[in-house]
TrEMBL record:
GO cellular component: cytosol
Record-linked PANTHER family: PHOSPHORIBOSYLGLYCINAMIDE FORMYLTRANSFERASE
Record HAMAP family: PurN (MF_01930)
Source organism superkingdom: Bacteria
Keyword Amino-acid biosynthesis: no
Pfam families for the chain: Formyl_trans_N
CDD domains: FMT_core_GART
Name of this chain's protein: Phosphoribosylglycinamide formyltransferase
Residues that coordinate or bind N(1)-(5-phospho-beta-D-ribosyl)glycinamide: 13-15
Gene: purN
UniProt domain Formyl transferase N-terminal: residue ranges: 5-181
Amino acid sequence: MVISLVVLISGSGSNLRALLEACSSPEFPARVVAVGADNEADGLAHAEEYGIPYFLVDPRAFHSREEWGRELLAQITQWTPDLVVSAGFMRILPADVVARLTPRLINTHPALLPRYPGAHAVRDALADGATVTGATVHIIDEGVDTGPIIRQHAVDIDPADTEHTLHERIKTVERDMLVATVRDIATGQINLEELSA
């Protein structure tokens, strides 16, 4: 079975590109059907390159977060995706959006959750003096990076690391892990309903 994906991005879209490259193989059991963004993200160029439709739902165009969430949900659900992937999407989804999509709503995070949730995970790990951090793929729930963990991979922190160098190493791990996770969801090796029960 081939599952359909809607991928949400806010930035350069390196995780999106990894998924698009994987999906271009006939053997890979998933296809990206649409890409969504909350701004004119650089990563939308990857969707254009691969001929994937995309939509933009900018929160600044709406009177409330809830109104923005309703429009975002409408844009997502018109594609009837089997799985929604938040891949560097830097906004917390409103509760009604999460309730409608979870558990088939996953996120990548550049830390070993539950440590270092939130938008500054790499900086927080360095500030904490940690020697190891990593990447997590998890189901999105109504909290901030609190949903059930699907997969994690550790990354050692080098004493010379800056936020940029560490984040780049984490991104490499994150991309591979996300592709593997989507494949395993598609083939039934990962059951999101069981994980979220």
